[in-house]
Amino acid sequence: MQEKYDVNSGIPENGVADGSQVLLYTEQVNVDLEEVYFKSVGKAVDFNGIQSISSVSADYDPSYQQLRFHNVDVVRNGKTINRLRLEDIQTARRERNSENFIYDGTITAFMNIPDVRTGDITVFSYSIKGFNPIQKNKFSTSFVLSSPKYLDRISAHIFSTRKLNFKIINSDVSTSENTRKGITHYSWAQEKVPAIKMDENIPFWFIQNATVFVSEYEAWNDVIAWGEKLFTFNEPYSKELIAIADDIMAKHPSEGGRITAALKFVQNEIRYLALHSGIGGYQPNSPNKVVEQRFGDCKDKSVLFAALLHKMGIEAYPTLVNTRLAHVLSTMMPSSKVFDHCIVKVIDKEGTNLWYDPTLVNQGGSFNDIFIPDYQFGLVLDPRLNYLDTISNFQNNMVEKFSTFKIVEIGKGADLEIRSHYHDGEADYMRSILKNNSKDIIDKELLSVATHNYGRLASKAPFTVVDDSLKNEIVVLEQYKLDSIWDKSMENPNSVNLTIIPFNLTSALSMPTQLDRSTPYALSYPMVRKHHFELKLPERILARPEEFTINSDFFYYNYNSTYDISSNTLNISYYYKNQSDHVPASAFNTFYDEMVKLDKNIGYMISTNTNKGWDNANSSYSIGSLFLFGSVVFVIIALLIIAAIVFINRKASKKSVE
């Protein structure tokens, strides 16, 4: 159907983005004809907008779709100029995810519209015919009715003889329904739609646009039935697959050992490669074929892993998840198109639900505590179920560092030992880094980071690694000789300062810069960071025990320090844990205030007077907040400093102790 637009539409009060104005965007679907029609009308308000309205592109899968351009026009001073020429249309297979070994076979047809000028209106439309046959005539889709750009008019239409279900979020737009000759026309339209305010650090799962969800599925068990048929293969297992399962059973008598061995085989021996053209985007290859070709995507790996477990008498089911919409997947309408990944649910002989991602590599841990990302919900392809299952995740993803300084002389250098413990998913990640990089490269990177954090230094010995794969803990040990860790005081020319910053925490934290927000604020989850410092000092200091704690709904933070006067040893410990994956917009101000408190209570300073004739150096120092806001790893984030005073005069030090 033809949609009208206003060529004389005024520019909105807040102006337009990139110098262009969207006068109309419409998407129209004919379910029975399996055809989708798109039309876009844009106006170049100034010369900056010419670029955005003068190019046309359309993506389609040639294995089951056909693309047709209907018109490409330029409207200038009320006159329509036809710019559609077949020879100007080019095609390319771009494979935007090839760096991740994902090839979907999509073809992009694109065209540059010639001679577009300021004030011109470009109008183009095209249609794509063909639905993926793997959907088995079950229709589902979604329409977005808002944008980061102002929209003069946007609409969506569906024509269907079949019953469809709808869900609308972030909008009070109404659904229009008209039936004629057995065909129902559903439509949604909005005019003068304000641009969406894009806040910083929005969670992936948060849907901010006005969106209409459409699905022919009535319930999740219908989707399970669809998926179970796709993932079920009636052919007998091949000799090679049986041999692999028999070998695992012979080497591993326990159920847990067999689960772990089968997982490691699929993860590390079957390379990841996704060929998603046509029905391959939904239907896996048979486990026999995956074993034979020794590569596969998430579906292929999950089917093979489940097959190996079945051969060993262990209950397992491929499970569909969404890596981005995990948090809100349970609120979505039942649909086969809301998933982008496949994992496996295993039920051991004790009836415990276990979750595994066969696409991950180099994982450690025992069978019942192997790291699984925070997918939250999954559609288990078990015909006995009729709901989305909850995916349990008990890992902390902890990195714990121990930094030991041996300081021989005040104002000079020190020996530094850094011992880093990586747990859970962080251990898996570090294991991959160690396996995919040479020792020289890693050594240089560690040296670079240590130099950035502590100043000029030299390595005393090559780094060492201890990998306890059963506990899934990796320990990296570094040893350095520091030239100097003391800085001259800006307040007192006779003083030098030693500043201690828990880089293991600050490299993972960032302070929000946008305080007026209407959307949730994303937090890394799960995440735990600990940093312990031991400073063996040559002189006695005045330092009282300190402790500070923040226990909020969103994070837990603890700092404490102690000083052993008998050994001149100062111990400082920091602990941080995110307790949620996001901060609701309604609680953001509280979260920000708590982060400010954290900012004011992180870091430590030792200050000493270099003038031996000055016996009384009791004073406190604050260097203010240096919290660098952002998410750049290994950037110093700091800090309002807590001061401890060193007496360089030995007589004064002894007198104070006695």
Automatic annotation (TrEMBL):
Transmembrane segments: 626-648
Keyword Transmembrane: yes
Aminoacyl-tRNA synthetase in keyword set: no
Domain annotation Transglutaminase-like: ranges: 243-317
Keyword list, A-Z: Membrane, Transmembrane, Transmembrane helix
All residue ranges annotated as the DUF3857 domain in the record: 35-196
Database matches in Pfam families: DUF3857, Transglut_core
InterPro entries given in the database record: DUF3857, Papain-like_cys_pep_sf, Transglutaminase-like
Protein name: DUF3857 domain-containing transglutaminase family protein
Organism: Flagellimonas marina
